């Protein structure tokens, strides 16, 4: 068996199949193993609510669960000594601001600001204590204990870096990291970076930008980087949000794709960042296009017009941002689909079709209270165009 992943299995498996490889449900017999630490420690089949943001496990229990993973690796090495297993671990760090109320986040901010001043910033101390007196005592105590347990566990993971090919700690969104100098999220990243350095684990452990922990993205990283692809980033608004641009640049750098002019690129990465389009802005290129629609879920105009446009023939990757999805995750889906077409030198038509169904047709049918069969003409058109290009 070539590949194993414990998360997003259906999509991951489609990519593995398109690579012409095999996949399975056993860590011990796979050549390439992709593990999401949240899902491994807190498998959704046993408790869907628990993760590193909210759990009641002791440090000892966390370590025991992680050590079971190391034991599976050891069993593989015993059974298949001639095959070196490639092991990739993703650790998603959970942002306080996105998961707690404003007072809690501000308490975190002033707590870290005061600590960073080595006791000199009295104004920060005053704000920190004022906020702490307003917060629920039990909730705060539980957070402090949970944070201490998690950080100690992350250190245990780093201490065992030699068992892995790569360990990716996936951190804060660009906006949080660039605009916020303090906060326990920032302190957590600093602690992890310091621990990696002190354990001389820099060759295996990395702190990545938010959104770069996707297993499909990391599945494609090696084969895509070998191609030395070049892309041109283009937004329909011609004025892309600076943090979206940073997300895109992180995705491209992670895959080893260079940014260049539209004349010199292998494909165009086209972002629709406008709502309620009446016409598709002209894209003056005959190059392949990876496109992502970041408009509101209630505005399906872009996907509809693109499907009927002659430019659809150039599309090698498509995704529309779903309701509870981050923009970087949607961009990742579109980019991965396009990248795979270059790896295989064949359009990944199945994934384009699935993304259209999941992101466009199904939400649209629910929004207007109709059945999918009511859109059969448009679905048939999509199928016809994809099959025609595949022929």
Structure write-up:
It is a single chain. By secondary structure, this protein is α/β, with parallel strands linked by helices. It has helices spanning 9-18, 37-41, 59-79, 96-99, 102-116, 122-134, 137-159, 174-179, 184-198, 215-225, 242-255, 301-308, 327-344, 349-367, 376-390; strands at 3-5, 32-36, 86-92, 166-170, 205-208, 230-235, 258-259, 267-272, 289-293, 315-320. A five-stranded parallel β-sheet has the order 1-2-3-4-5, sandwiched between helices. A five-stranded parallel β-sheet has the order 7-6-8-9-10. Helix 11 links the parallel strand 6 and strand 7. The longest helix is centred in the middle third of the chain and has 23 residues, at 137-159. The radius of gyration is 23 Å and the shape is globular.
